[in-house]
């Protein structure tokens, strides 16, 4: 490739965290947050692939109205295992455990997280929980839906429910420990001068996520423990035949599982808040509002859980309250979308791969979020609850939103993590393929839902076939969009161009150290006296004019 | 392995290290409140649904043993606080003494709990094993009483497991204190284990009236 810039060819730093020690023990017994991020990357990629295989089987099965591939009982197992693998073992850990672990100490100027050994323990707990769930998958599968509604899960199902819920219970402690670690790290380990309002918005997003990890996960833990006890010892908490209450299970379950969706999206929003200013070369618009909106989403998100239960017979007054609160929680999300868009206005925009993912995120999250409001509307939900409309809604947010945020972040920080550049042209092709494939997969599902196709059914009326076939075709394109990065990221570790400390360039503290960083992160503890996203005023990075330095975001230091 | 009291590599100062450890323990206790909270909610829903059966079932628990246990645990919180105080004022010889007292009281609690569990086993009040409430109870009463005892064993069992962890932590603290590791400048581990121990005590203070004192005045 012809070089037209006068930038020097970079060489890899001599000592960094990847070559600071060798051997399997130096990885499995590491307490370096950067290496732990790699351990998590391996784990979440494995479960993503597994969940993806289940998804492929579902989509193939639904090519014909009577189902092509599997029996009805097996179909129930496919969508259940797809959900469990994807939600608990991929989406919830993904950005926090991979990108959060790697970046949080770097972004705040610390040498590591507050409790590095606890960080490693979190990974082992995740793996242990994963092993229990894999055992369940292998010995009878799981057919209750990832939502484990009782008494099917606690009494009547003939699948491997007990090991699965125990595995998810154990995995919950991985989340809890990570949440504690992040919250304490952000509170106590910021470098001198790194005040709260100089923190990158990625940190604010992870702080809000940690609040949810800490307050929400223990509830699902105790709930699944009760399901396991009920199943093994024939107790009656949730079994109406023994005086128990299945609706109690649903309240307890959704009290965590709704905030859980904010665990899945807030970190992705944090990533977008880092990418957009970098590739628009402008300070982010409304820093304080974006930071506050992350906290608001975390808080309000705890008060909307029963919008998953509108059709269970809950009182009209309760339903009204939850519906209203669900509309309210959309407001801080909208604030973010407006602010990202305003950041783009009059920016100097380039379309590098991370930016493609970020722009895709904004559009797809918008659709996903707005359709959530459709579902929060009581009258409308009566008709579209438990249809493909719901499935399309949450996949737009979890795939079109969270996964694109994850991939955008992986691309953005790959040079920092590995010291190498991924191949840009191929990466853009992959991003566009993913975007097209995604919309073809899930766009038709909105229509299917509105036309009445129920979710979790192994068959459907013939008039729905065209849209189902379109959806499956889209899924095959989407798969290519996922496979390409797996291939070229692996290739780039060995053969990619050396990136240098700050290839984009970006203004975060993590970009001021080597790529890959030294084991101790910084040779000298930084002292921060600049505002975040000061893209107009960093001549040292080749950015900006002689415009005055950015004023503090909140007026005082 | 790092020795207790040294500055760990990720921290800049000992103050930062202490602040992190203490904040970490408080946040962990917040997670524990939510963890037990799910059980408390389940208890509340079920007691509200079956008040009479819950009252009858509650009366089969031993009030004397439960009350003694409550006093024992409150006393153990006192001795734990005294251990923390001893460290803060530099009375190094008293630290192991109060830790041992706390250990003894905690063990008495667990021992009495064992006696109570055994009594329930003998009376066929353990759910899952052949459960039989008063002979002649209707099927529904039996089922609802089994719910009460499921919650009784679930809540006190989870509490007892936390006590066992606490006992382990106390033994570790005892060994450190016998080596003279705790000074007025450095006593964070005792403080944080103290926080944990007090939390476990507070959970029991809620469990005791909810489980043992239902309608006792009637």
CATH fold-type name of chain B: Four Helix Bundle (Hemerythrin (Met), subunit A)
Kindly report how far apart the N and C termini of chain B lie.
Answer: 59 Å
CATH superfamily of chain A: Cytochrome c oxidase-like, subunit I domain
What share of the residues of chain B lie within helices?
A: over 70%
- The helix content of chain A is 55-70%
Q: What is the CATH first-level class name of chain A?
A: Mainly Alpha
Q: What is the residue-averaged pLDDT of chain B?
A: 94
In terms of quaternary structure, the protein is heterodimer
- CATH level 4 superfamily of chain B: Cytochrome c oxidase, subunit III, four-helix bundle
Largest interface, Cβ cutoff 8 Å: A-B, 43 and 35 residues
Counting helices, strands and paired strands, the structural category of chain A is mainly alpha
The domain tally of chain A reads 1
**Would you give the CATH topology of chain A?**
Cytochrome C Oxidase, Chain A
- Please give the largest β-sheet of chain A: none
Number of strands of chain B: 0
* Global Rg of chain A: 23 Å
Helix/strand layout:
The complex is a heterodimer of chains A (557) and B (218).
Chain A: H1 24-28, H2 33-61, H3 72-108, H4 116-138, H5 152-156, H6 161-188, H7 201-233, H8 246-280, H9 287-300, H10 316-344, H11 353-376, H12 378-384, H13 388-418, H14 424-451, H15 465-495
Helix pairs in contact in A: 2-3, 2-4, 2-15, 3-6, 3-7, 3-8, 3-13, 4-6, 6-7, 7-8, 7-9, 8-10, 8-11, 8-13, 9-10, 10-11, 11-13, 11-14, 13-14, 14-15
Chain B: H1 14-49, H2 51-59, H3 63-89, H4 94-122, H5 139-178, H6 188-212
Q: Can you put this structure into words, describing what you see?
A:
- The complex is a heterodimer of chains A (557) and B (218).
- With 557 residues, chain A is mostly helical.
- Chain A contains 15 helices and no strands.
- Chain A has one domain: Cytochrome C Oxidase, Chain A (Up-down Bundle).
- Chain B contains six helices and no strands.
- The mean pLDDT of chain B is 94.
- Chain B has one domain: Cytochrome c oxidase, subunit III, four-helix bundle (Four Helix Bundle (Hemerythrin (Met), subunit A)), CATH 1.20.120.80.
- The relative contact order of chain B is 0.17.
- Chain B is an all-alpha fold and 218 residues long.
- At the A-B interface, α6 and α7 of A face α1 and α5 of B.
């Amino acid at each position: 490739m012809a070089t037209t810039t006068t930038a020097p060819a970079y060489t890899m730093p001599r000592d960094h965290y990847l070559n600071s020690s060798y051997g399997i023990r130096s990885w499995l017994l590491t307490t370096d947050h950067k290496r732990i991020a790699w351990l998590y990357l391996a784990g979440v990629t494995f479960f993503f692939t597994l969940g993806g295989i289940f998804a492929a089987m579902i989509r193939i099965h639904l090519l014909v109205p009577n189902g092509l591939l599997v029996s009805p009982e097996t179909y129930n197992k496919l969508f259940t295992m797809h959900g469990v693998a994807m939600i608990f073992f991929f989406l919830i850990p993904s950005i926090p455990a991979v990108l959060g672990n790697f970046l949080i100490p770097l972004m705040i100027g610390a040498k590591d997280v507050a409790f590095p050994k606890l960080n490693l323990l979190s990974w082992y707990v995740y793996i242990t929980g994963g092993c229990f769930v894999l055992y369940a998958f292998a010995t009878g599968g799981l057919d209750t839906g990832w939502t484990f509604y009782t008494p099917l899960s606690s009494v009547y199902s003939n699948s491997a429910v007990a090991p699965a819920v125990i595995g998810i219970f154990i995995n919950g402690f991985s989340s809890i420990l990570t949440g504690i670690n992040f919250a304490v790290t952000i509170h106590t380990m910021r470098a001198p001068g790194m005040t709260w309002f100089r923190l990158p918005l990625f940190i604010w997003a992870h702080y809000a996520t940690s609040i949810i990890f800490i307050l929400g996960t223990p509830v699902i833990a105790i709930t699944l423990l009760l399901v396991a006890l009920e199943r093994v010892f024939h107790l009656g908490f949730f079994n109406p035949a023994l005086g128990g209450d299945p609706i109690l299970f649903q309240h307890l379950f959704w009290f965590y599982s709704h905030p859980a969706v904010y665990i899945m999206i807030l970190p992705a929003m944090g990533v977008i808040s880092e990418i957009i200013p970098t590739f628009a070369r402008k300070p982010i618009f409304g820093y304080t509002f974006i930071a506050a909106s992350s906290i608001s989403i975390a808080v309000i998100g705890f008060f909307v859980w029963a919008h998953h239960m509108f059709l269970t017979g809950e009182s009209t007054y309760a339903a009204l309250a939850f519906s209203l609160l669900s509309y309210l929680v959309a407001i801080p999300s909208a604030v973010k979308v407006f602010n990202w868009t305003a950041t783009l206005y009059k920016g100097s925009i380039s379309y590098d791969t991370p930016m493609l993912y970020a722009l895709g995120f904004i559009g797809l999250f918008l659709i996903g979020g707005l359709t959530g409001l459709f579902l929060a509307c009581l009258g409308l939900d009566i008709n579209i609850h438990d249809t493909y409309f719901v499935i399309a809604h949450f996949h737009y947010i979890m795939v079109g939103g969270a996964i694109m945020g994850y991939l955008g972040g992986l691309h953005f920080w790959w040079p920092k993590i590995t010291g190498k550049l991924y191949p840009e042209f191929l990466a853009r092709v992959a991003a566009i393929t993913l975007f097209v494939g995604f919309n073809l997969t899930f766009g038709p599902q909105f229509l299917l839902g509105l036309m009445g196709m129920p979710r979790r059914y192994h068959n459907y009326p013939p008039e729905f076939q065209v849209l189902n076939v379109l959806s499956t075709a889209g899924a095959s394109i989407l798969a290519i969009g996922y496979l390409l990065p797996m291939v070229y990221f692996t290739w780039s570790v060995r053969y990619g161009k050396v990136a240098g400390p700050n290839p984009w360039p970006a203004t975060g503290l993590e970009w001021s150290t080597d790529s890959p960083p030294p084991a101790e992160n910084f040779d000298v503890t930084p002292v921060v006296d600049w505002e975040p996203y000061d893209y107009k005023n960093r001549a040292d990075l080749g950015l900006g004019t002689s415009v005055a330095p950015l004023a503090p975001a909140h007026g005082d230091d | 392995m790092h020795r207790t009291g040294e500055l760990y590599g990720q921290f800049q100062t000992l103050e930062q290290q202490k602040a992190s450890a203490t904040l970490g323990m408080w946040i962990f206790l917040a997670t524990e409140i939510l963890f037990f909270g799910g059980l408390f909610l389940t208890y509340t829903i079920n007691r509200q649904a079956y008040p009479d059966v819950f009252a009858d079932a509650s009366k089969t628990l031993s009030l004397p043993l439960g009350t003694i246990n409550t006093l024992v645990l409150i006393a153990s919180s006192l001795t734990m606080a005294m251990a923390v105080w001893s460290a803060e004022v530099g009375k190094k010889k008293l630290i192991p003494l109060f830790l041992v007292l706390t250990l003894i009281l905690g063990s008495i609690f667990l021992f009495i709990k064992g006696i109570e569990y055994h009594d329930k086993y003998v009376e066929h009040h353990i759910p899952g094993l052949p459960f039989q409430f008063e002979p002649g109870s209707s099927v529904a009463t039996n089922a609802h009483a089994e719910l009460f005892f499921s919650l009784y064993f679930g809540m006190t069992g989870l509490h007892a497991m936390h006590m066992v962890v606490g006992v382990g932590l106390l033994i570790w603290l005892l060994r450190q204190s016998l080596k003279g590791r705790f000074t007025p400048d450095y006593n964070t581990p005792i403080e944080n284990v103290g926080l944990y121990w007090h939390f476990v005590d507070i959970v029991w203070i809620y469990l005791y009236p909810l489980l043992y004192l239902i309608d006792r005045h009637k």
